[in-house]
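Obj.: predict assembly geometry.
Materials: sequence records (below).
Method: joint structure prediction, all chains together.
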Amino acid sequence: MILSALLTSVAINLGLCLLFFTLYSILRKQPGNITVYVPRLVAEGKVEEGRQFNLERLLPTAGWVKKAWEPTEEEFLSNSGLDAFVFMRMFVFSLKVFTFGAIIGMFVLIPINYLGSQLTDDSDFQHKSLDSFSISNVNNGSNRLWIHFSAAYIFTGVVCYFLYYEYQYISSKRIACFYSSEPQPHQFTVLVRGIPIPPGGTCADAVQSFFTEYHPSTYLSHSVVRRSHKLHNLITDAEKLYKKLTNLKQKKDAPKRQTREGCMGLFGPKVDILDHYERKLGNIEDNVRMEQSSLASKEVPAAFVSFKTRFGAAIALHIQEGVDPTEWITEEAPEPHDVYWPFFTVSFLKRWISKLVVFVAYISLTIVFLIPVAIVQGLTHLDQLETLFPFLKGILRLSVVSQVITGYLPSLILQLFLSFVPPTMIMLSSLQGYISWSQIQKSACTKVLLFTIWNIFFANVLSGSALYRVNIFLEPKEIPRVLAEAVPSQASFFIAYVVTSGWTAIASELFRLTTLISNFISRTFCSNADNDFEPPSIPYHSEIPRIRLFGLLGVTYFLLAPLILPFLLIYFCLGYIIFRNQFLKVYVPKFETGGEFWPTVHTSTIFSLVLMHVIAIGIFGLKKLPLAAGLTLPLPILTLLFNDYCQKRFRPIFKHFPAECLIKKDRADENEHNMSEFYDKMENAYNDPALMPISYSERSDSHRSPLLYSNQV
Amino acid sequence: MILSALLTSVAINLGLCLLFFTLYSILRKQPGNITVYVPRLVAEGKVEEGRQFNLERLLPTAGWVKKAWEPTEEEFLSNSGLDAFVFMRMFVFSLKVFTFGAIIGMFVLIPINYLGSQLTDDSDFQHKSLDSFSISNVNNGSNRLWIHFSAAYIFTGVVCYFLYYEYQYISSKRIACFYSSEPQPHQFTVLVRGIPIPPGGTCADAVQSFFTEYHPSTYLSHSVVRRSHKLHNLITDAEKLYKKLTNLKQKKDAPKRQTREGCMGLFGPKVDILDHYERKLGNIEDNVRMEQSSLASKEVPAAFVSFKTRFGAAIALHIQEGVDPTEWITEEAPEPHDVYWPFFTVSFLKRWISKLVVFVAYISLTIVFLIPVAIVQGLTHLDQLETLFPFLKGILRLSVVSQVITGYLPSLILQLFLSFVPPTMIMLSSLQGYISWSQIQKSACTKVLLFTIWNIFFANVLSGSALYRVNIFLEPKEIPRVLAEAVPSQASFFIAYVVTSGWTAIASELFRLTTLISNFISRTFCSNADNDFEPPSIPYHSEIPRIRLFGLLGVTYFLLAPLILPFLLIYFCLGYIIFRNQFLKVYVPKFETGGEFWPTVHTSTIFSLVLMHVIAIGIFGLKKLPLAAGLTLPLPILTLLFNDYCQKRFRPIFKHFPAECLIKKDRADENEHNMSEFYDKMENAYNDPALMPISYSERSDSHRSPLLYSNQV
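Observations (raw structure tokens):
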């Protein structure tokens, strides 16, 4: 790729960014779009849909950027929770790292690279290959490489310092958040599985007698889990039907609430359909009640057991309970609304098999994905394209077309294919037997991260001429050399990738284009769209892997091709503003892992540092400076030791809270809160929502009494 | 190796066994040898040294074999502890496995192998190569290989059944032993390290206030650890001097206690030396007191913290205590007399470095050991020896000499070199920072086991022509083929190895030759030997690896060369009788891990099964029966899944006791024992013995009061 192709890409993306920025600034002020641009505030009732018209509505303004900066970290934390805070710290951390990297890169490394003459590229500045700005252009054996050597050491030191600071800061916040939290049921509860049910007895009796016997002073109550899969399906049906019905009634009775709702009014239903639907709903409700009453016999040998103190719950969690370790297995309970109920219907064996299936599916997907990667690779080799489609020769020779195709298209196509990955991984993870949505998200995040790093980074790097080089991982000694040969040649592709997909992501996030379009579609074709309104929660499983991939690219190419750094800096800067805005106004935290995503960020940064070192060792070797290669060797070792220390020092805090915290917090609770009231609430917190009484149809008031509370059976 | 060479070896060893058996039967009855043959009974005061002479003393009798069989398992368990019991179960398990294996091997596999004609060995029966009895002799592609295939499945199934039964049996015994045990200080105590000492405060204060704050209802007392390395050295000096002195005095004053003590009386000391020694002892005692009184300021940030209940100790053990995970680190306390005090003088950094050094030393030793292995290999290739030493040609051509050299000498030399390994590993492990002797033994046991399996099995197998084949482990697909080519060729060596080193070990164990000789030497040259008398404890770190190596050989060669099985059967049968005897009369359990050695046995057996499967896959491939190779593939997978289940089902019981057991036992204690008396005893249980008052010299009665109890400072 030559400089002008990069500039074309930059221009296209800057243009798009500006366009979207303007559009956003105008569109966000239109009252009709309020549920798209500030859904969180709508849901919290902080914004009313306005109707007055004024001219300012049609002018782009940047006031929202200022507003995004206003809240302090504390306000942000209390407003959006620790997970959102950690997500923002990821941007802050990356900004720090890449500001430092970009300064060294722009003012030291790029000039040195450009002054080299290894590549003998005689074209004028505009047509210079991007490689002229990379380490490839430094002459073999040149003493200037020692500056790169020092840069590697300094950069690693600074990144490690930032990593340590951030880990410490976030873990202190995690502890502080815990201290300042209100008592929450999941802090007092453990999930117990593998309950041995005595012949003739019930699960509830077994739980009751076991915990009264062995945790008499702290045991409070329990909720036995039931096989409610069928019930969940029935209730979903009922809810859908109820919504349809309400909608139809509104259409029929009320005056049109808003003009925009009427556009499809022409096709409004006949009135006798109402009766039909109401009868159907009544039937479903009867089925639900029947199913609910038959659930008593459908116990799963699992229960949520609540304790009077957090420390009491921690004791049951950490110490093996029964003599047989496959019985009375305890694990942390998720927040009540975070529980993934369908999981419980799956037996141990089925879960075990589905885990295996998911693993195989994941591996297969990773392999199949090499096809789009190969297509993208093909696009960067225009000559191959010309051979395949000779009639395109004329068009392809146009410099603008070739620049778009090599500089913009490949990463856009890759981006398109990549967008299917996160939902697929969520699906795979949900089959794996996790008991909560947050665990599914975390597992999907890791899956996407590994998938992205492998498929985008390694497959791209190694596929150039030798996808078959995968076996180098079986010859550890050869890894630095092979990587050092392969990685730099892909630098220009990744620069284009960051510019295109990074900024496109920002732009699409900025305007939430997909939401806008889907909103438009739903408003046009389904008249009940508004009733389904619910503010979205941040898709961590797709955002974190993207940001980490960019982190990986930045750190890996810091030494090789520092040109990538300024573009990353812009990406992280834009991302920081956008995500800060849209946490405050768009995303609603649906669950809280307490910042458990941070260790992932830490580990992946360490991985990229070590990858950089390995490549640096290879590069110094190829550049005939074996002394520098040898002296770089301690760097990955020191980095890994640093990581080891960090994991020992901070990781346990992200797994469980220590006794000191739990006991302090328990004592504070006793003084500050009315705990007996909280205990009463907690008793029903973990009841399966499917067991709650339902009553949608109007004729059924007499049926509204609860039929079954799981902990009363 | 040919059959007659094997028979020579068998003859030599049977002869030796018989000789030693006779010698033992006579020698054990001589009163002078009582401390060699029944030291345990002497130490327990159950046997008095007799003096009467009768003729029966000079005749070999086998009554002791009968006596060894008499005690039931329960008696054995209560007499020798769970570790000894597990050790014996290892023999029982091996006997079961190899009885089954030998039946199939002798009556099915060997006849089938011998009927094959692949090797075209036309010599008469006596000169047949041992390979004629191995799978190598079965014709390629023969359908008879399917019998081997079925044998592999059946044998694996039976071994897994035995493994499961044994794991279940031993874990039930472990729980039962726990329930029936008296209250012991280490069950109520945890070791706390990384205690943050507040400026100006002491470690004792910090511990006291922390545990009173966070474990108020269960905390009992603590003993702070002090840097007592110098003190330990001083006390050792004092003890040596005191022994010397007592001895000299006895020599001077008393009439000779036993005739055998007099043999060196000629060189008895002059009387004025006594005065000199007494003055020296007094000086050392003064030094000890000075050092003891200065210890108050030499606190190590570690303490043994005792609780009122076992469950209380378990809570402190399992839940991270402080906010900073590098502080208040808890681990299980060893038994008081099992504590390895010198460890505490080593700082965290020094321990970390010594771990690294030990690791490097271990790897180096493993590599250096290839030299004796190579020598042994050389001996089995007589032709090479002839080339090196042409003048030996005549002697080497004698059939008896060549049979001794190829059949007996190699394994004897190997055995000699191997005998240095266990003490070396104990030394390495003691440098590693373990806090108890039992942990050092366990760690050394693992080290020796890995060392043995690698150096004896793999190095021997792979060194034949290609020690450089080690890199096959980087090409997983090639492993079965390479092993299948290399392993069978070593079968005859290993058969000889089992016959020689196994039986030699049994013989030397039977007569404890080394002890006998060293006893003779010490009695002859150092007249104070008897005062040092202490019954030995079983050296698990050398015995378990040997037995496991034989297990590995038996399982691996079950299919390849079943001829090994009868010899193993004899080994295990002899071993069972001998070790049962001499546990009852010789070894005294010095510490009790509660059967924690069993998981090692289980894992190593699974390893040998999988190794057998891998080799079987390779063999079936080489023998042109790819279908059988393919159908064997599920076998290692099923075995590993079985192992996974076993580890989930039983492993946790061997790590910690579950809440159910702890609480039940705590409650039983309250009813059965006078706990307040036990608590009083426990308060001083973990005081460093070096801090106890000493008084050897007679003039220092006034100094006998204790100067320092660590928990009172």
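Conclusions so far: The CA atoms of residues 148 and 558 of chain A lie 10 Å apart.
To do: check interface contacts against the pulldown list.
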